[in-house]
Amino acid sequence: MTSYEAAGVDIAAGERAVELMKSRVARSRRPEVVDDVSGFAGLFDASAFLKYRRPLLATSTDGVGTKVDLARRLGIYDTVGHDLVGMVIDDLAVCGAEPLFMTDYIACGKVVPERVADIVGGIADACALAGCALIGGETAEHPGLLEPDEFDIAGAGTGVVEADEILGPDRVRPGDVVIGMASSGVHSNGYSLVRHILATTDLTLETQLADLKRPLGEELLTPTRIYAKDCLALRDAGGVRAFAHITGGGLAANLARSLPPTADALLQRSSWDVPQLFKALAAYGRVPQAEMDRTFNLGVGMAAIVAPEAADAAVRLLCERDVPAWILGEIIEGAGQANLA
Fold first, then answer.
1. Is residue 215 classed exposed, middle or buried when 0-12, 13-18 and 19+ CB atoms within 10 A define those classes?
2. How far apart are CA 306 and CA 326, in angstroms?
3. For the residues of 286-312, what is the DSSP string, one character each?
4. CA separation (Å) from 5 to 14, 143, 150?
5. Residue 306's CB: how many other CB atoms inside 10 A?
6. 156 pLDDT higher than 90
7. How far apart are alpha carbons 265 and 335 in whole angstroms?
8. Taken in order 193, 199, 201, 205, is the CA torsion positive or negative?
9. Three-state SS across 322-339?
10. CA–CA gap between residue 176 and residue 248 (Å, rounded)
11. CA–CA distance from 231 to each of 94, 176, 213, 333 (Å)?
């Protein structure tokens, strides 16, 4: 007899996954979240915007990319949920927006309730760290398109910022200081190159390199650092001109997006130590420095451009918040480029 289950879709497993994730999703709740008993939509009380003079909504969407393949191979699923929040919500922080809520989408070959609950639980835990609510999502079973153990995740986030307080290139000027904030690892960019290195060398996910504390696979699955609350604290302290989230394209390319066409950023490689994990990938994969520069964050996950008189206080504030930070470089007259010296 033909049925939906015979076609590969297990409705009961989906319902079980929802039950397993409920308690962790609840941890991300904000006071503005309004319950929708039907469960078809996430509701957020917009009267919270009345405190703004001219509130602008900011939105961002992203995924985790091929890092999910490593999670699948290792059977570790909560860290990629954390990565998803970092990729989406920290983009909102760049313009100075406070993150409000997020939704997620999971596609899989087969719904395994515990696996889905781990993924969504990781998303919810990271949302709580970022100060935003996870107010909705969708899990879709795609038998025949994805293998039973395959999955992909994506998400979208919404934030709010006062119109006359938007951070960005128009505020940046020569003499400003660039501050680097340490990444927690590779974050969620460059994993196609990582997987290529694993496939073409004798490195495996189980390899224990002398300078790394954990097996390579666990190091590579280190979740993305969440910067949103730290960026907002820095914004509130004053003197911030712009932020740059260091994702695909590397440090120079992403920082250049936060520069006006009349200024350059001169960054000093000697100002930080590139983490050993990146050095190992470069050495084993024989990856040229230029390729490393444009693929990975190399230890800098977020950058802030601040007024010179605010630089020292900004570094202190970030360090007090357990975000390693340092003077990375300076803004000079130029043509809108960031250069590593």
1. middle
2. 12
3. T--HHHHHHH--TTEEEEEEE-GGGHH
4. 12, 10, 18
5. 26
6. yes
7. 10
8. positive
9. CCCEEEEEEEEECCCCEE
10. 25
11. 8, 17, 29, 26
Q: In the prediction, which pLDDT does 62 show?
A: 96
Question: What amino acid is encoded at 148 in this protein?
Answer: P
Around Cβ 46, how many Cβ atoms within 10 Å? 13
Q: What is the pTM of this model?
A: 0.91
Amino acid at site 295: T
Q: What is the residue-averaged pLDDT of the chain? A: 92
Which residue from 181, 184, 196, 118 is spatially nearest to 151, judged by alpha carbons? Answer: 118
What's the pLDDT at 211? 87
d(CA 132, CA 258): 24
Pick from 264, 267, 266: nearest CA to 336: 264
User: Tokens 């250069």 sit at which residue?
Assistant: 339
CA distance 227 to 234: 10
pLDDT at res. 26: 60
- State the pLDDT at residue 224: 97
- Map tokens 């503005």 to a residue: 32
Cα separations in angstroms, 189 against 137, 248, 294? 23, 5, 10
Buried b / exposed e over 117-150, threshold 16 CB at 10 Å, is: bbbbbbbbbbbbbbbbbbbbbebebbeeebeeee
254: phi then psi, degrees, rounded to nearest 5: -75, -40
**Residue 281, φ and ψ in degrees, nearest 5:** -60, -45
For 78-126, what is each residue's pLDDT tens digit?
999 999 999 999 999 999 999 999 999 999 999 888 999 999 999 999 9
String of DSSP letters for 67-121: HHHHHHHHT--HHHHHHHHHHHHHHHHTTTPEEEEEEEEEEESS--HHHHHHHHH
Q: Which helix (H) or strand (E) holds 236?
A: helix 228-237
Q: For Cα atoms 134, 137, 139, give the angle at the middle one, nearest 5 degrees.
A: 140
